[in-house]
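The material for today's practical consists of a large collection of protein records. Read left to right, the backbone structure tokens trace the chain's path through space. An example says more than a description, so a record of this kind follows:
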Amino acid sequence: MTSPKTLVEAVRHHLGAYGVECSVRVERSPLVRADATLALRAAGSRERFSLYAMPAIRLSEVLAARDEAARVLVAAPWVSPRMGAQLRDAGVAYVDSVGNASVRFGSVLIEVSGRPRPRPSTSSGTGASPSRRTTTLLTPANRKVVAALLADPALGEAPLRELAAAAGVSLGQAHKASALLADAGFHRDRLHDDQRAALADVLAAVDGLAASHE
């Protein structure tokens, strides 16, 4: 998992590349939830942001941070176009490790999107890369559950009955699939972007294998 320090440095690097002078003060007080304070300057405009490094973005945490600070900037390993739109709608700036960004202050407007996610880490314990065991879990019924979770992230925290209905499977099957995925390190209520990407890659591979045998 990407460390907060690495994410803060990525923000400094990419903002500098976009022509923004960035001064970083790392917050060490236990009374301050933000990981750092950014002082940005460009084109005659200046602004301070409270930076929150989030290896896995949770919108509820972002909104809580926004309520505490006037200007919030989220640093993450990768921000999907969908999540980027949600952050912009919430008035939250972001910069990810590959350079996708949305930052506005004064006369400055930075909007960069479409850069692909970094390759998932294959180190043990991260849960970011699907194992062979994960692939074997994708029976036709389990695949429907995984596909539903990927299509609608809100189902991750929804009752199992709603997940079952969305996937078109029985309640028991939804429970079984969720338990099997959890055993493999993919907990439906806290899937981060790398894990979603890994599961999507497995689904694509399984679909491609099935098509080759038709």
